[in-house]
Write a structure and sequence with these properties.
The protein is α+β, with helices and mostly antiparallel strands. 21% of the residues lie in helices and 31% in strands. Strands 2, 5, 7, 8, 9, 12, 13, 15 and 17 form a nine-stranded antiparallel β-sheet that branches. A four-stranded antiparallel β-sheet has the order 6-14-10-11, with no helix packed on it. A three-stranded antiparallel β-sheet has the order 1-18-16, with no helix packed on it. Strand 10 (208-210) and strand 11 form a beta hairpin. The longest helix is centred in the N-terminal third of the chain and has 14 residues, at 31-44. The N and C termini lie far apart (48 Å).
């Protein structure tokens, strides 16, 4: 059955399906939208008591529901300066060192940091022998992405690609999954060096957004696009630890890259399969 599921992903028109779902998710359809949201809540056992608006009727569109804000204070931020924090609610897929430019995806599968970053050679060099972490957001999760540490935006790259599902089954069976799916790469300058936040698209992920650029995709492109940003002066964009930096309209994956010697060690219980909650300790900073 697993082989059939993977084979179907290769065959299906993933971009077309995703964009059609995106149009539906953005539409205000009244009772149809409300009924769909109620079904989704029940199907994925979503804890709506954490949401700022707990009733399905409060959301005009599926997208409003998918990107729902949480109640103030529901995700307390670890303010210990020795730690960076989890950027999202989700589950750790993999984490560890970047060895010889390769990132571990799953047993039998690796991919290059260069490919992940859209073949931006200078960017990839900044993360040689550094560390990575991959976090999977399931459909039930909170879909906003936050800063693990204070950082100033220096570059954004849009990388076209496929839209395979990014669930654990696909990660175990599709080579180079995160470096072949459509993605948005945000580079930040931080007190511990450069940090990359890679927002990976997936099947029926209707949109990837950032707080500074709005919707980056769709529409999709066929070429890699880059945007450079000033890191000093009045136009520099600096986001504090815990600030929102982007969002998915439905679940997906975030891959974080850190420079060599930026991190001392991952926090206790940060290992493949571990549940993450935004704002909790993620990794200790190197002294």
């Amino acid at each position: 059955m697993d082989k059939i599921k993977i084979a179907l992903q290769y065959m299906m028109p993933k971009h077309l399906i995703s964009r059609l779902v995106g149009k539906f998710a953005a539409a205000e359809l009244g009772s149809i939208t409300t009924a769909g949201i109620k079904w989704f809540i029940k199907q994925y056992k979503i804890d709506m008591s954490e949401a700022a608006q707990s009733e399905a009727e409060a959301y005009k569109t599926f997208n409003d529901f998918f990107t729902r804000p949480l109640k103030p204070g529901i995700r307390p931020l670890c303010n210990d300066k020795e730690y960076i924090v989890h950027p999202v609610d989700g589950a750790v897929s993999q984490c560890g060192p970047i060895k010889d430019g390769q990132i571990f995806q799953a047993k039998g599968h690796e991919y290059s940091s260069l490919a992940l970053l859209g073949n931006q050679v200078d960017d990839a060099k900044r993360f040689e022998e550094g560390d990575f972490a991959t976090i999977y957001l399931a459909p039930k999760d909170y879909h906003r992405i936050h800063m693990p540490i204070k950082g100033t935006l220096s570059k954004m790259t849009y990388v076209p690609g496929d839209l395979f599902s990014v669930n654990p089954l696909t990660a175990e069976n599709v080579p180079g999954l995160f470096a072949r799916n459509e993605r948005v790469v945000a580079l930040f300058e931080t007190e511990i060096g450069p940090m990359a936040m890679v927002l990976v698209g997936a099947t029926i992920v209707a949109s990837i957004e950032t707080v500074w650029a709005g919707t980056v995709t769709p529409p999709t492109g066929k070429k890699v696009f880059t945007w450079d940003y000033p890191t000093e002066g009045p136009d520099a964009l600096t986001l504090d630890k815990g600030d929102e930096m982007g969002r998915f309209k439905l679940g997906s994956t975030v891959v974080m890259l850190f420079a060599k010697d930026a991190l001392d060690e991952f926090a206790e219980a940060v290992e493949p399969g571990a549940v993450t909650r935004m704002g909790q300790p993620f990794a200790k900073i190197e002294d």
